[in-house]
Amino acid sequence: MMDLLCAYSLPLLVLAAVLLDQLLGEPRRFHPLVGLGNFARRVEDLCYPSHTKSASRLYSQGMAAVCLVIAPFVLLAVWLQTLQVVGVFFPIVVLYFCIAPRSLREHAERVWLALQARELVAARTAVSMMVSRDTTQLDERAVAKATVESVLENGNDAIFAALFWFVVAGAPGVVLYRISNTLDAMWGYRNARYQYFGWAAARLDDWLNFIPARLTALSYALLGKTSSALRCWRTQAPLWDSPNAGPVMAAGAGALQVQLGGAARYCGVEETRPLLGGGEAVGAADIRRACALVQRVLWVWLGLIFVASSVWEVAHA
Q1: Long-range contacts: 264-268, Cβ < 8 Å, 24+?
Q2: H helix or E strand, kind and range, residue 311
Q3: How many CB atoms lie within 10 A of CB 289?
Q4: How large is the average pLDDT for residues 238-257?
Q5: Residue 245's Cα: distance from chain center in Å?
Q6: Among 103, 83, 77, 45, residue whose Cα is nearest residue 174
Q7: Cα–Cα distance between 222 and 315 in angstroms, integer?
Q8: CA gyration radius for the chain?
Q9: Which 3 state secondary structure label does DSSP give 108?
Q10: Which uninterrupted H or E stretch holds 317?
């Protein structure tokens, strides 16, 4: 059933998955990514060297672990997509599970509502569900800043990069991307345990995100304050640790004309991050502005997918 990914059906598959997400949101009882995380932890237990800490052994075992987690699911996706009946619905369901625009918006909305009600403790709790930094001591502006940063970065990670790989390689492509992104979140840390073992997961996620992140940054720029976004992308993104989060967050901050970055505490240690954007300090209202920007980009991408598919069909008629 590979003909489903032809010029006419591809945009319909994408639209169906996005509408399914808007209707149902994130699964409440069991999400496949939870099961994936449990499976990845078992693979880590199997592959992590117990008798040596040599860098070369950790590198090789980390690469083996990534292959063991990714290969079965990608191959399964390749097979299921070819089936006559299952292949009709499988790509839609897979893309639905791999994107999360409604969930991202709902998490941000909880923070916004708590800030509006002046319930700082509730706002800290809500934002802790979105970010990995310590949130217990954040004031209102810091909570708002963390939320806006998460919305902008996850706009790429949880929506646009997944759409990109679905368009490029169908269900196997989006499965590959989503698993690599999950493994990076689990193993891609520069600490004593994962510095070498997690290298392969982190690099694979960097490679798969390289083009989508820049398309996301460009989209933020074009649908926000364009000149400011492009300037921030050019001058500030290279200062950020992540080669992909830097362009996305710098362009997003410039598009919204707010100040992001700066000090943040992770695992009890305060990190001084470069400043991003410019203009006003972030406030609660900017949470909704960031969500609106991501939503505009999503609908523009859908429109472009339809237009590009139509042009492709006409050119190859």
Answers
A1: 264/133, 264/146, 265/133, 265/134, 265/137, 266/132, 266/133, 266/134, 267/134, 268/134
A2: helix 285-315
A3: 18
A4: 96
A5: 10
A6: 77
A7: 27
A8: 20
A9: helix
A10: none
What is the DSSP code (8-state) at residue 241? S
Supply the DSSP symbol for 27. Answer: -
Question: CB pairs under 8 A, 24+ apart, for 297-301?
Answer: 297/155, 297/160, 297/216, 297/219, 297/220, 297/223, 298/18, 298/101, 298/159, 298/160, 300/219, 300/223, 301/160, 301/163, 301/219
In the structure encoding, which two tokens stand for residue 265, read together?
A: 């505490």
- How many Å apart are CA 27 and CA 145, to the nearest integer? 27
Residue 174 has phi, psi (to 5 degrees) of -75, -30
Range 94-115 burial, b when 16+ CB lie within 10 A, else e: bbbbbbbbbbbbebbebbbebb
Instruction: Residue 149: name the closest of 107, 189, 185 by CA.
Output: 107
Tokens matching residue 299: 């609908």
- Report how far residue 223's alpha carbon sits from residue 297's, in angstroms, rounded to the nearest whole number: 7
pLDDT confidence of residue 7: 45
Q: Which run of H or E residues covers position 264?
A: strand 258-266
Q: Provide long-range contacts, Cβ within 8 A and 24+ apart, for 6-13.
A: 7/309, 7/310, 7/312, 7/313, 7/316, 8/309, 8/313, 10/167, 10/305, 10/309, 11/302, 11/305, 11/306, 11/309, 13/91, 13/92, 13/95, 13/166
pTM of the model: 0.94
Share above pLDDT 90 across residues of the chain, in percent, rounded to a whole number: 79
What is the pLDDT of the chain when averaged over all its residues? 93
Residue 199: helix, strand or coil by DSSP? helix
